[in-house]
Every structure is written in C-alpha cells, then in structure tokens.
C-alpha cells in the first residue's frame, strides 16, 4: 500500500540508484572475500585452533569502544537531540521486543533450544554488516555522519541486551525445565537470577562504559556557552575549523580523532574473519539440510526485518503527524539494514562458551551470513524506496 502511494518514477529511481551503487556492491564483495579468508584459515588450520578468539577480544575491548566514542564526537542542537532521542527510545523498545518476543516462535522446543534459537534471531550483526552497507549507500559527509549517529543511538538497546541479558540466558541452567509456556508452570523469568554482582559485570563492560561516556559528552554540548574551543585550519586538528564544546575530545586532545578513527575501523574486518572461522567449523551440507535452521533463518532475514520496517513506518508517521520528532530516510535505511543483518557471531561465541546450543547458533550464523548476500540488497532497496515517502523526507507539520 505504501509503495502505491509513490510515483512509479520515484520507485524506479530509488531502485536503480541502490542497485547501481558500486560502493554498496564493493562492500558486499569485500565482506565475502574477507569471510572467505577466515574460512580458509580455519579449514586449512594455518593458524591453529582458536586463532580467532584473541581477535574477538580486540574487537570487544578496543575496536568497538573506540568506534562508539568516535561516533559521539559530533555537534548537537535541540532538533537533532529530539530526533536522536527518538531513535534511542525506538532502539531499546525494538530490541526488548526482539529479546522477549522471539522465543514465541519456538514454544514447542525444549528450553535450551528456545534460548539458542531466540537469541540468534534477536541479535543481528549490526556493526559488521548493517553499518558498512548503510555507509556505502550514504551520500556525502553529512549523510555519513547521520548514519554513524543513528546507529549509535539505535544500538544502545542492542548493546545493553547483548552484553547483559543475552549472557544471562546462556549462563542459566535449564535442567528439568522442558519448555517455556505463556502462562502457568514453566513461564520464563528472565530476571529471576539477576543480582547486583551481575549488574556490576554489566557496567564494567568496556562497550557499556563507552556508551555512557560518549552519550554524556555528546549531551553536554547543550549547555549554553560551552563551545569555547577554537579550531583553525592551520593547527594540528583534522576536524573542520570552528568553535567546539569542551566535551568534543576530538577538538580538545591532539590525535584523538585519528586514534579513534583507526581503532574504530578494526571491528568490521576482524569480525568478518571471525565469521569465516565460524563457517569453517561447520559442516555446510548439514547446515543447509536442517529444517529448523532454515525456519530460524527465514524468521531472522525476512520476517523480523519486515515487522520492524512496519513498526518504523508507523512510528515515523506518528512523529510526522504530531511534529514531536522526525525519522529521516537515512535513519530508516540504517535501522532496517542493521536489523536485516545476519545473526551476530557474538551469540555463537556465547553458545560455545557456555555449552548451550553451540551447534545451532553456529549453523544459524553460517546460514544467515551466506543468505545475506541476497537478502541485504533486497532490504536496501525496500529501505531506499520506502524512504521516499513524505513521512521520511518532509519536515513534520
């Protein structure tokens, strides 16, 4: 119905524009090639068993915190604040919906299987697939900045659930608890074993620390008179000349911008190598012959993105009608591509670490990654066409 409201010329223009974007297809090709390298390293045992584990630690402890901080180093005004906070709230609501609702598709499974399947569906590989694809489709520095900021705010809920409750799900003992029911005996209680010790572990996570620090520095820019740092075009700094807030560390500290840019670029290629290692550990014939894995992959790559796209359109329409906030077409594109990304390799790592559904999560990660070569261009086209609707392109009235 939404597409019929758009003129044919707009639809065709958006379709051609997306599918003819060489940077977008180049990103997919590079991702496939890097994953293939990781696959070969694993199959040929060139670096021994478990070679990818230290690389994953580099991602979690260095690369992702640097990327998060870097993306918060951006100017802020009241209008942008309202729009970004709306994405912040939407991200938390969407990931809460995925975290708690995804197991409803697997109520006939035993508890361990429910945990594995639902977590694999709930958490996509947003930073390693969705973000590079969105950046490839962005036009100019302004849209690139908007993509980075949108993924930062939309992913706050993702990191909170990924770094806390997802871990608790894989840690818990499901012995003698055959399945989850909606009511009565056996109902799932995700917060049952949540305590202060686990809360401290959550807030000691470098990703969570980077989120809170970055958000604090970003929002402090709203203080009147705080923009006192003068950057000229003849100094050491690489950012544009002008006056900046003292919380803009990239303007205050020499080399900060270069350091976060270089370190923040590490997660994506390293994660692709790690995904290749996961694929290399799996029997591909077995992976593509299991009906349950196909069912989970269908939900992950088609059903879930479709549901979230519908919800995003509804939320954008409300904001456009009321004038309280807006959801831009770039924010829409970023959110859809992140949700439509394959299952996160981190979930497979959790499953292996805590010996719960390791084979299942690895197979879903493998299959969704290979299917993403087809499904992500499809969702990129959907997002580009839908983004031409007036609720994403016009100022709220």
Automatic annotation (TrEMBL):
Q: Which GO terms describe its biological process?
A: transmembrane transport
Listed GO CC annotations? membrane
The UniProt entry lists membrane topology as:
Multi-pass membrane protein
Question: One Pfam annotation, family name?
Answer: Mem_trans
Does Cytoplasm appear among the keywords? no
Q: What is its main location?
A: membrane
Classification via InterPro entries: Mem_transp_PIN-like
- Keyword Protease among record annotations: no
Could you list this entry's UniProt keywords, alphabetically sorted.
Answer: Cell membrane, Membrane, Transmembrane, Transmembrane helix, Transport
The residues the entry assigns to the signal sequence are none
Lineage: superkingdom: Bacteria
Any idea where this protein resides?
A: Membrane
Which PANTHER family does the record cross-reference, listed alphabetically? AUXIN EFFLUX CARRIER FAMILY PROTEIN, SLR1864 PROTEIN
Tell me what this protein is called: Malate permease
Native organism is Entomoplasma freundtii
